[in-house]
Amino acid sequence: MKNDLPAMFAILIFPGGLSLLLGGLMFEWIDRKFVARLQNRKGPKWYQPLADVIKSFSKEEIVPAGVNAGLFIGLPIVGVTTALVTGLYVPLFGFAPSHSFAGDLIVVLYFLSVLTLTLGVAGANTMDHFSLIGATRTLTQLFSYEAPFMLALLGPAIVAQSWQINEINVYAQNHTWFLFSQPIGFIIALIGLMGKLELPPFDAPEAETEIVSGALTEYSGRGLGLFHLGQDVEFIIGITLITTFYLGGLANPLEFILKSLGLLLVLTALQTLAARLRIDQTVGLWWRIGALLALIQLIISIAIRKLI
Amino acid sequence: MQRRSILDQLKSWARVNSPWAIHYNSGGCNGCDIELLATTTPRYDLERFGIKLQGSPRHADILLATGPATLQSIEPLRRIYTQMPDPKYVVAIGSCALSGGVFHGCYNVLGDLSRILPVDAYIPGCPPRPEAIIYGIVALLNSVRNSDQKITFTSDIELDIAEPVLFPRERGEITQPNRQPHADRYLRRES
Fold first, then answer.
1. I need a labelling partner for A305 at 20 to 30 A (CA). Which of A181, A233, A287, B190 fits?
2. Do B50 and A52 touch (CB under 8 A)?
3. Which residue in chain A has the smallest CA separation from B163?
4. Total number of domains constituting chain B
5. Model ipTM value
């Protein structure tokens, strides 16, 4: 599908902006509702994430003593902005991305990391011990899952011989799903996404029972709401990326949404199954097993390409 | 009741539908806390109302306070309340928080949370059942929906909340806060 929307519309309403935010909130609700059903309870109402965000925005924002006020106020904005920019380069809801250039895969992955990076810097900015520990853990986790996740998305890119998300999509659409041709890469990408989103087995950075709520401990009101929105956007972008890479590229919107919902339910089920890992266990898991398996997958796909 | 603008209505809708709570026990026997934690389990499912138990006072809207407020704990209690961003509400849970309960008249307790905090809802019981706690919080939310008046609260107790010293080297001094105030300052003379 050729995308020739006006630039402002693309930025504010459809692939970026509003639809991305609402989609992210919807995905968060489905996630929470499904977790609730698996725990045998009714769960939140459908507008719960929206109410949370509006409430956060309507509250007072306290700038604590001992922080750099400019950074404290600016970092959430930078985080949300970088997360929203990625919406322009991924095929949201199965539509072709509105903008595309050679190498945008790297840019999207970089922008997704910037959100986590701002979270870490925001935590390190405050004087609070909990947010300091949370920031350390956030950044440690960033360095551990980033390499395997990157390698896992590199597999399809190398087979499709392109660094452009759009071209990889087209390649994936016309060949067997990468889920079947590169199963190891799929699993690593899925679990890497869980690490990126700080979902339960990898939620040591915001472990409520140990360090209050990690890097965001001192944030209230607007900043908290913005980081919350940023994480929701990262959620939908991550799921869209994996769906489009491993589950058969572009499709019509209904089919694509069904695929990404299926992926979301798998992620949610994994969340409720696993208990929290310690931060050293997370790092060990990623570097000892994750990166190794992803490398093996990569070598296999390169070798097969050379042979054929 | 005067007409409110759409923005105000939206704000109060969000406020009612997403109350995040923080829990503090000011020196009770833990009975209420066990009931409160039972309330947050899947059996009673507080997430239906959007209620989430938060660890940080900065994220919370409702302070769920239990216990009779011992003299040791009133400073942290007031400090947690001060750290919460506006608008904020206080729910006193259990007989102790209402009147001192079984500790009424003890030398080391204040006995009534409303003497140091603007309490919005009281939930009696020793301890109150989870159903009672949910009922109390929902009653508070209903009253929030119908009005957004500013509550003016004055306490008859002067509290010195210790200023945290962030940069002791730069300031060149380390001030020791008065950690053990004398009981007479807080207890009402019964004459």
1. A287
2. yes
3. A65
4. 1
5. 0.77
